[in-house]
Amino acid sequence: MNEDFGTRLKRCLKDAGYTQVKATETLQLSKNAILNYTKGRIPEANILYELAKICNLSMEYLLTGKEELTNLTEDELNLLSKYNLLNDKNKGKVENFIDERLNEQEKNLTDTKNLA
User: Fold this and answer.
1) Environment class of residue 34 by beta-carbon count within 10 Å: exposed (0-12), middle (13-18) or buried (19+)?
2) pLDDT tens digit sequence for 56-86
3) CA-based, 20 to 30 A from 104: which of 50, 51, 53, 76?
4) d(CA 43, CA 19)
5) Residues 60, 66: contact at Cβ < 8 Å?
6) What residue ranges in the chain does DSSP mark as E strands?
C-alpha cells in the first residue's frame, strides 16, 4: 500500500480506536492540528512521537510506511531469517503447519474451558 503520511495517519488513528477529535483532545492539540496532519502536514518531532505512541507504532512507520523489525526477539529473528530462505512452496507448507497448530491450540483451549 503506497499511502502518503496523512492517509496513513488517518488509518492508523482509526485502527487504534481514535477519532480525530479524540486524538486532538488526548494530545491537547489545537482543533485544526490533526486535520492538518491528516491532510499531509508533517508534525514536529515531539507531536509525531506522541501520535506514534497512541497508535502503538513507530515514528518511522508513520513517516514512511515501513517498519524496522527492531522489536523482535532473537528467536523471532532467527525463525524469520530461516523462513526467508525457503522457496514459495515450502513457505506455504510452513504457513499451513502454523495454521494447523493454532487451530489445534484453540480447540484445546475451548475444550478445556468447556470442561471447567
Assistant:
1) buried
2) 888 988 999 887 656 667 888 788 778 878 8
3) 76
4) 17
5) yes
6) none
Q: Do residues 9 and 38 touch, judged by C-beta distance below 8 A?
A: yes
pLDDT of residue 94: 92
- Amino acid identity at 107: K
Nearest Cα to Cα of residue 34 among 3, 56, 5, 67: 5
Q: Is residue 26's pLDDT more than 90?
A: yes
Residue 30 near residue 68 (C-beta atoms within 8 A): no
Which burial class, exposed, middle or buried, applies to 7 when counting CB atoms under 10 A from its CB (0-12, 13-18, 19+)? middle
23 neighbors 54 (Cβ within 8 angstroms): yes
Instruction: Tell me the backbone φ, ψ of residue 80, rounded to 5 degrees.
Output: -65, -40
Note the pLDDT of residue 23: 95
- The predicted model scores a pTM of 0.58
